[in-house]
Amino acid sequence: MAGVAWHYVLKFIITGDAAVGKSSLLIRLTDQRFLANPDPTLGVEFGSKLITIPEENKVVKLQCWDTAGTESFRSITRSYYRGAAGCLLVYDVTSRQSFVNARSWLADVREHADPHLTCILVGNKIDLCTDDASSTSSAPKRKREVTTEEAELWAKEEGLLFVEASAKSGANVEAAFEQATRDILEKVRRGVFDDDRSPGVKLSKPSSGLALEDQTRSGCC
Amino acid sequence: MEFLSQINIALRGPTGQPQSAADTISRLADRLSPSTLLADRRAAVLALKGLARDCKADVAELALPGLIDVLQNDAEVDADIGKAVLETLITLCEVEENAPAASRELGYKNTDTVLAEEKVPQKLFTLLADHSFYLRYSALQFLSTLLQNRRQVVQAYFLKAPVGVTSLIALLEDKREIIRNEAIFTIQSLITQSPEIQKIMAFEGAFEKLFNIIVNEQGLEGGVVVQDALTCIDGLLRFNQSNQSYFRGSALPPVLLSLVGFPPSLPFNTPTPQQFALQLWDVPQKRANVSLAVGIIGLLARHAGPPDGLSIACTRCLTELGLSSNAPTHIKTQALRLVPSNLSALPLAEMIVTPYMPVPDSNGEEWDRLEPSSALDALVELILHGEYHAIIDGERRTKDGMELRGAALGIFQNFVQKEEISEAIVQAMISQPGSQAPVTPLLYALTTVPVSPLNFSSVTSTHFATLLFAHLLRYSPRAKALARSIIPQAGAASNQNSGAFFVPADGGPPPAGGAADAAEADEDEPQTLLQILSEHLSLAFLARAREDIPAREAREWDRLCVGYLCLLIQWLWEDPAAVREFLEAGALGVLVEPINQTAEEDAMIPGLCAFLLGVCYEFNREPGEVTRAIIYPILTRLGIDMLSGRIIHLRDDDRFKAVGPDSIVVPAPSSHAPTHHPHQGPPSVGVPQQDVEEGEIWFDWAFVDFWKSNYYTIQKAIVVDPNSVSSAAGQENAMLVASLRDVIRNQAAEIERLQSQLKTLSTASSEQEALRAQIASLTEQLQSSEERKRDVEKEQEDLLVLLDELNSKRRRDKERMRQAGLEVSEDEAEDDGDEDEEEEE
C-alpha cells in the first residue's frame, strides 16, 4: 500500500422525487445488489465507492449522499447541495409526475449548489418497460410515461448529462456515476474547480497524519 | 460607568427626583426605537446591558422586543452595538445552575421569546460569518446559551438555515483560537442527539477540520482544545451509522491510530514500536485525550460483518494498549473493555505481545522489556497476578487494578466462548500417558494450597483462577468431562517457580508459603483437580472457623471459600460423574458444617453451600457410595425451608447485588484501606503510597447470571423425593417428561387398536379365501356336470337317430316282408307315427 488509494474524492448528491429509486441506485452502486422494498430515506444516507477512470488513469473515491425525496426533508437536504461536486437528478420513467417535478428539483440545485456542479439526469426503472416480455413477467409491467427522446431533449436544453438506468438490473448505474465523474475530472483539468473553493472535490494528498506515521516508522527501525 | 450616570442624570429630568429602575428601563427601551440616532441606541443598549444583571425581569419585560429589533437591524451595521446587544441578550437568557427557580424560569422564558421566530437564530447564523471578532464571538456565545436552554428548538432552526452549517464549520478554521475553541464547544451541544445535524456536519467536512486542529495542536499531547475536538468527533460518530461508514471510508482512521502512536498499517507479525508501548503520561490532559481517542478506536473496532483491516488494526491497538504498554491503568481497562466481544478479528493465542515491567525504584521512568509471549498468556498472567505483577501496588488491591483484571477476565470469557477453544485449553492441562502435562499458570494458581497466614496476592490469584476455570467449564459438558481427568503434577501446588511467568527479577516474594511442602508430604496417590479443590475448600472452612484470626484475614478466607464454591457449583451442575467424585471425596460433611452454623450474620457462604448441596443432590444420578437416599435425610434434618431460605438470602447480599455485566469490582470496606500488612514486605518501587481507592471482587457477572437462572431449580429440587427420577430437574423437565409420557401412552394405545384391527382383517380375509376356493371347486363341479349332461344329451340324440334309422329300416323290412308275403303285424302298419312310442313302451 505504498501509493495513494485514490487520487480524488468527489462528493455526489442523489436527488429527485420520493420513490423514484435513489436509495436503490446507491445500494446498487456500493453493494452490487438490488434493494427490493426499501424504507423511505429519512434525511440523508451515506455510501461510498471507489471507481477507476481508465482513460485518465485515475482512481476516484465517490462519496455519495442519498437524500430523502419526501417534501418534509427538503430543507434538510438542501443543505447538502452546496458542498457537492456532482448531482444525480433521478426520475422514474414510468411516472410522468416525477419527470415534471425534476424541474423543481433542478431549480433547487441551481439555487443552492456550486455553479460548476455536474448534474446528470437519470431515468430510473427502465426494467419495468423493456420490450422483452419474458424478463418482466414477474413484475407488473408498467407503461413508460416519459420517452427517451423527450428526456434527452430536456437534458440538452438544461445542459445536463443524461442516461436511462435500472437499479434492479444494474443497467447503466455505474455508467451514470462514471459519466458524471469524467465530466467533473474534465472540469478539474480545465481548472474550473480550484481546490480551495469547492468543497466537493478533493485532491488526495499525504495528510499530516500519514506524515506522523512515517515518523514513528523511522523511529522504530 | 461614567456615561451611565450621565444618562441617568439626563433622564432624571428637571425635578431631580430619583427614579425607579423600571422607569429608567422603560425610557431606555423607548430609545431603542429605530427612529432614534444610532449613537443614542448604542448608548441605550449599553445602559440596558449594565442594568440587565440586576434588573433582569424589568429589562426583559420592557426592553426585550426592542433589543431583538436592534440585533436584527443594527448588529451588522455597527459592531459595537451588535456586541453590546448580544451580551445583554446573553445575560437575559442565561440560566444559572444554582440560581433560584424564579430566576431560572425567567431565563427560559426569555429564551423562548427570543426563539419564538426564526429571525433571531437566522441572524445569529449570519453573524457567525461576520468579520468582526467580537460579533462572531458574542454570536457564538449567545448561540451556545440558547442551545443550553432550548436545544431542540435551535437545532430545528439550524437545519433550516441556508448558511448555518457552512459558516459554523468555517469557524473551525478561524485563526483566532478563542473563536475556534468556542465553535468546537458550540458544535458539541449542537450535534447532541440530532443525527441529521451530525450527518450534515460530516458532509461539510467537520471530521477533517477537527482532525486538523488536533494534529496542529500537538496531537494528544495537546491541551483542552484537543479534548474538546475529540469529544466532538465522538459525538458525531457514536450513535450515527451513516457517519461511521463515512468515517471508516475516509483517510482519517489511520490518523487516529497514529495519534495514539500505533502504526496504522503495522503487519500482524511485527511487534509494535516501543514509542507506542512506552509513553510519558505525566500530563493529566494527555490521559483525558487518550481516553477519548481510545473510545473512538473502540467504535471502529466494533464492526458489523466480517472484520476488515481497520477493525483488526483497531482491535489489536486496544489489546496491545491493555496488555503491553505503560498506559495508566484506567486507560488500559477502558481499552480492554472495548475489545469487541466477537474475537474473530483477533487470534489471541497467535498474537505476540511484548510486556514491559517498571524497573523498581525508577519511579516509572525505566522499564524492562520482557520476553515476547502470546497475548493469551499475557492476558491470563494479567488476570492472575495483576498489572506488572503487582510490584507497584503490592498487597493492596487498588480499585483501578481490580477493574483492569476484571476487564481482562471479560476478554478471556469471550475468547473461550467457543467450545473448541475451552476444550483445547482444558485438554492441555491433562497429562498424557508417559509425560507430565506442564503446569500452566492457571492450574498453578488454582491449586495453590492456602496456608495461614494468608498471602493476599496469592488469594487474589487463586480467586481469579477459579473465575477463569469456571469460564472454561460453564455450559460445556465435554470440557467438564475433560477437567475431571486433570491430575495436577505432584508438586504443582508446591513452592516451585516453574515456567517463564515468574520473571520479575526483583519482584515480590513468590506466592504460597513453605507449608505447602508439608501438605505434599503425606500425599501418596496423585489427586485429581476436583479432589484437590474439595480439600482446599475444607481447609478454608476450617481456617475461617478459627476464633483467633484477624478480621481482615477471615475476610480473605471467605473470599477463597466463595471462589471454590462458585467454581464447584458451576462445575457440578449437570455433571453427575463430577458430583459422585466430589461426594466421595467427603464433601457432605464439609458443606453441612457452614450451613448449620446458627449465629451467622453473613448469608453469603451458607447460601453458596446450601446451593452446592442442592446441586449435589439434584445431579447425583450415578450409582456410587453416596446415594440420593443418603443425602435426603440430611436435607430434611437441616430443614428444607432453612436451606431454601439460605439460597434466597444470597440474593440480598450487597456483594452479590452490586455485580453487573460491566462492574464486578465492589469497593473494599474502607476500614481496611489504610492498614498495610506489616509482615509482608512493602512494595519496593519508589511510587509514593498515596491513598488510593481499594476495590475487591467476590463474584463475576457470569456466575450471578448463572445463579439467577438456576437457583429456583435447586430450590425445587431439594424438596423432591430421592427416588423420583430426574423429575426434580425443574418443572419444565417434569412437564416435558409428562407430556412425552402422554405421547407414548397414546401411541401405545393406538398401536394396540391397529393391531386388533389388523387381526380381524386378516381373519376375514382367510374366510374369503376359503369361500373363493369353494366357489372355484363348485364352478368346476358345475362345469363337469354340465359337460356330462351335454354328453348324455348328445348320446340320447344319437340314440334317437339310431332308433329312427332302425324304425325306417324295420318299415322297409316289413314292406319287403309283406311283398314277400310274409305275415306282418297290422297295427304297425296302421299307425306309423306312433311306432316309436309304442316300441318304447
Word description of this protein:
The complex is a heterodimer of chains A (221) and B (841). The longest helix of chain A has 18 residues, at 173-190. Chain A contains 6 helices and 7 strands. In chain A, 33% of the residues lie in helices and 23% in strands. Mean pLDDT of chain A is 81; it is low at 133-137 and 205-221. In chain A, α3 (96-112) links the parallel β4 (86-92) and β5. Chain A has one domain (8-132, 141-203): Rossmann fold (3-Layer(aba) Sandwich), CATH 3.40.50. By secondary structure, chain A is an alpha/beta fold. In chain A, strands 1, 2, 3, 4, 5, 6 and 7 form a 7-stranded mixed β-sheet that branches. With 841 residues, chain B is mainly alpha-helical. Among the domains of chain B are: 1-161, Leucine-rich Repeat Variant, CATH 1.25.10.10; 250-398; 418-490 and 526-668 and 693-724, Leucine-rich Repeat Variant (Alpha Horseshoe). Chain B has 39 helices and 6 strands. Chain B starts with a helix and ends with a helix. Chain B: InterPro entries: ARM-like, ARM-type_fold, Uso1_p115_C, Vesicle_P115, Vesicle_Uso1_P115_head. Chain B: This is P115 like vesicle tethering protein. Chain B: It is found in: Golgi apparatus.
Summarize the structure.
Chain B: InterPro entries: ARM-like, ARM-type_fold, Uso1_p115_C, Vesicle_P115, Vesicle_Uso1_P115_head. The complex is a heterodimer of chains A (221) and B (841). Chain A has 221 residues and is α/β, with parallel strands linked by helices.
